[in-house]
Amino acid sequence: MDGYHLRLMATAEEFFAIDLRVGTVTRAAPFPEARKPSIRLWIDFGPEVGERQSSAQLTHHYTPESLVGRQVIAAINLGDRRIAGFVSQVLVLGAMSTPQEVVLLEVERPVDNGTRIG
Q1: DSSP annotation of 103
Q2: Which contacts qualify for 97-102: CB closer than 8 Å, 24 or more apart?
Q3: How far is 3 from 108, CA to CA, in rounded Å?
Q4: Distance of alpha carbon 113 from its chain centroid, rounded?
Q5: For 14-27, what is each residue's pLDDT tens digit?
Q6: Closest to 111 measured CA to CA, from 18, 15, 14, 20
Q7: Helix, strand, or coil here: 15?
Q8: Residue 13, helix vs strand vs coil
Q9: Smallest Cα–Cα separation from 51: which of 85, 91, 89, 105?
């Protein structure tokens, strides 16, 4: 395979290095400049982390208005990505029956912003 190796498993150390947190969407806006249909999100992760922003491909099941006030789960330490001039700082997590049909993961009951997922 010309030196390439497909690795299908992560080590426990690699998995636990991902910082997963709960945050509340404080603002959301359409993102027509993005190549794929997306929504810009501003998410409050509490006093330790603060507010972070994300570009999320959630337009199949959600509108910007329906996301404000919702708690989401996100990976907050994967680095920034620039998408059509917007800096996406976190990866919001969801179940994907298809790449266009993302259903957000959520906590069973409200928790403090910044609560770690483990």
Answers
A1: E
A2: 99/57, 100/37, 100/57, 100/60, 101/60, 101/61, 102/56, 102/57, 102/58, 102/60, 102/61
A3: 45
A4: 14
A5: 888 999 999 999 99
A6: 20
A7: helix
A8: helix
A9: 89
Rounded CA separation 4/21 (Å): 33
The two structure tokens encoding residue 20:
């997963």
The whole-angstrom separation of Cα 66 and Cα 41 is 12
Q: Which among 22, 4, 24, 19 has a CA at the least distance from the CA of 78?
A: 19
Type of residue numbered 92: V
CA pair distance 23, 44, nearest whole angstrom: 5
Residue 118 confidence (pLDDT)? 87
Site of tokens 């199949």: 60
Place of tokens 């403090």: 112
Global pTM exceeds 0.70:
yes
Encode 40-69: b = buried (16+ Cβ within 10 Å), e = exposed.
bbbbbbbeebeebebbbbbbeebebeebee
